[in-house]
Amino acid sequence: MAKRYRYKDIDLSFAKHPVTGDIAVKTDVAAIKASMQTLIKMNFYDSPFQPEIGSGVMDLLFNPLNFVTSIGLRRQIELVLENYEPRIEVIEVYTVPLPDEQVYNVTIRFRLKNQPEELRFDMLLEQVR
After folding, report:
1. Closest by Cα among 84, 98, 21 to 55
2. pLDDT of residue 23
3. Sign of torsion over alpha carbons 47, 48, 52, 58
4. pLDDT at position 10, please?
5. In Å, how far are 3, 31, 61, 65, 109 from 88, measured between CA atoms?
C-alpha cells in the first residue's frame, strides 16, 4: 500500500523524479517549508492572477541593516504566513541582523494546524541585485 501524505506540493526547482521521470514533489513538512520560503521572498504582483499575494520583504532588505528594519521584516513575514499559509500556525518569528555578513538570520517557530509538535524553519535573507 502506498504511503499517504498529508501535504504534497510540486518541487519548484522542477527537478525530475529519478524513477518516474515526472516532476519531483515535496511532501509534508518539506512542502510547507518550501511554501513558506516562496511566500516570504515573493513580491507583490509576482503572481499574475493574484497580485495581492506577496510580503514586501525583499524591498525592506534595501533599508539600513539594523533592528528597526528587522522589526519590519518580522511583521511582514508574520502577515504573509498568517494570510497565505493556512496549514500552519505561526508561534514566533525572529529576525536578527548580521551586519558583517550583510544578511538577516530568520527563525520561524511554527506548528502544523491541529498538531502539538513545534517545528522550526531557518533561512537567511540577503539583498539580491
Report:
1. 84
2. 79
3. positive
4. 72
5. 22, 12, 25, 29, 10
Q: What is the pTM of this model?
A: 0.85
- Residue type for position 95: T
Residue 57 · residue 77 · CB < 8 Å? yes
Residue type, 20: T
Q: What's the order of all strands across the beta sheet hosting 103-112?
A: 88-98, 103-112, 118-126
Beta bridge partners of 126: 103
Report the run of H or E that residue 107 belongs to, with start and end: strand 103-112
Domains of the chain by residue range: 8-126
CATH entry, 8-126, from 3.10.450.40, 2.60.120.10, 3.40.1160.10, 3.90.550.10: 3.10.450.40
Q: Do 43 and 56 meet the contact criterion of CB atoms below 8 Å apart?
A: yes
Asked whether the predicted pLDDT for residue 55 surpasses 70, the reply is yes
Percent of the chain with pLDDT over 90: 60
Q: Do 73 and 56 meet the contact criterion of CB atoms below 8 Å apart?
A: no
